Amino acid sequence: VILAFDWTQLAQQIVIGLASGGVWATLAVALVLIYRSTGVINFAQGEMAMFSTFIAWSLVNHGLSYWAAFLLTIAISFAGGVAVERAVIRPVERAPVLTVVIVTLGLFFVVNGAARWIWSPETRSLPNAFSTRPIDVAGVAFSISDLGTIAVSLAAVAVLWLFFRFTKLGLASRAAAVNPDASRLVGVRVTWMLALGWGLAAAMGAVSGMLTAPALASFDQNLMQPVLLYALAGAVLGGIDSALGAVVGSLLLGVLINLIGTYVNWVGTDLRLPVALAVILGVLLIRPAGLFGRPLETRV
Amino acid sequence: MRSRAPGVAVWLLVAAVVVVAYLFAPRFMSDFHSRELAEAGVFFIAIVGLNLLTGYTGQISLGHGALMAVGGYTTAALVVHEHWRDVWTIPLAGIAAGIVGFLIGLPALRLSGLYLALATFAFAIAIPSLLKKFSGLTGGSQGLRLLEDAPFQVTGLSGMVTIFGHSMTQNHFLYYLTWGLGLLGFLIAWLLVRGRLGRTFRAVRDSEVAAASVGINLAWTKTFAFAISGVYAGVAGALLAIQVEIVNPLSFTFLLSILILVGAVVGGLGSLGGMIVGALFVQYLPDLSTHVSTAEGVPDFVFGAAIIAVMLLLPTGVGGLLRRVARPLTTRLYLRP
Lengths: 300, 337
Known about the structure:
Chain A contains 11 helices and 2 strands, in the order ααααββααααααα. By secondary structure, chain A is mainly α. The model of chain A has no long low-confidence stretch (mean pLDDT 87). By secondary structure, chain B is mainly alpha-helical. Helix content of chain B is 74%, strand content 4%. Chain B is built from 15 helices and 4 strands. A two-stranded antiparallel sheet of chain B has the order 1-4. The mean pLDDT of chain B is 85.
């Protein structure tokens, strides 16, 4: 029996997919920022975002409203990201790529350990950032929380884009990423631009974490590990060196995984992660540069 | 040529000291400590194998834990399903992981640097769920239990093992087995990298274009490096299975892949001697970290901080330090007319 296709459900599932994709996109953009400035994947990005989320939780617990804590946490995370770059990445700037990768893996343990040390490992929860009421758009009920999540993550990405596109500092940091030597000659302080990149990445990660946590009934220190994998898959799909690609890739991935989970029965919710990993492997094998990335070229 | 003779003598002396230390170390060690050392030996073998791939051929792998899983599950499946004696499964475990390594090496030809790291990373993350999926062979999330399901195939079931008339405890036997294979693997790796193959590997690592233009077959070299690295990982996985007498998806998580890579980088990529330091580092550091404080999170914090500290102090690992310190010395001692 062929039933009439439920367009309402499709629209709802696409919005749910966009909401999770939006959260992944903010973390994916953080990964791209660091890849472009430092040339490595920061495996500790998810843990740094988790740490930010716990800071936000503490602020909320001390009586701040969610949105006040949100903005304050972004500022703290920015400072933290800059500090991490100064302390542990700067000394290995000229070391082999693998050395820097190992440092980020070390950071993974340090940040995760510190979070469990400071905040005991019991589960906790953040208040909902948005009203949980559904909203009616053209006869279809959407959750305000999903639409709000999409709006906030896209706004965060847009602010970042405006910064890079229209400010002098943004121009300088783009220049430092593309051609460090020439930038140094025209007076750009390249190492501080790298630190700025780490700060902005940490701030974007904070947004991602603070949007992830309230959607869950409860969370602990392993909150961001799956999100990091989805963000990585989204960034690879869009092209690891392209911020636009990371956003488009993550949104596509969010919708794709949600639709597959809904309409392909044997995938369900258990196999969501393997689907993301298959996307990583597939993209890397078919088109390593992703949808928007520039192919890796080597000058001989 | 005269100046080379003392160099050979020194190497022979070092080899003799290592063999004597290997043979007599258990006399001065408790049962427990020889067990710990046997566990470090597993890391040592896997790290030497990864070094052949990453250090000498320049192919980054974040997925060696998955290759160890292939070896470990081959051993466990042969013991539990086919009732093989556990130690005789080791060669087959090595071959199985070598074949899987070769197969991974094929798509890896299209990838380089960080992209390869990402692909192997995805592979390492996916392995535990794949192991759960094929539960007929792997026992699902329960895993395979050597001791419960095939006790008579486990060497040292009675607690004592007798070899050539020498009787020893099971843990001393595991020490001799693991480090015997470890030293054999080290010797083979050393013979490989000092000859033509080693030069081929290094040529591919340093410049693929230059290597190809002097007639090196890039595809063959890289897949061969993956295969041989896989053999080492497979043997290490088999030894791990024999030591713990149980394998399940949690035995081969992504953490294992990270530890192997950390060991190789701390030991110093492109240096075989440093690998022993790398193995001891990843074996003993997590344990030492708990001595600082057992409070929640502190051991991980200390472990991570130690990794970062080593990388900041020795960006090229212990091997790089040895090269810098030892080479001028040997040069001064032997190459002066």
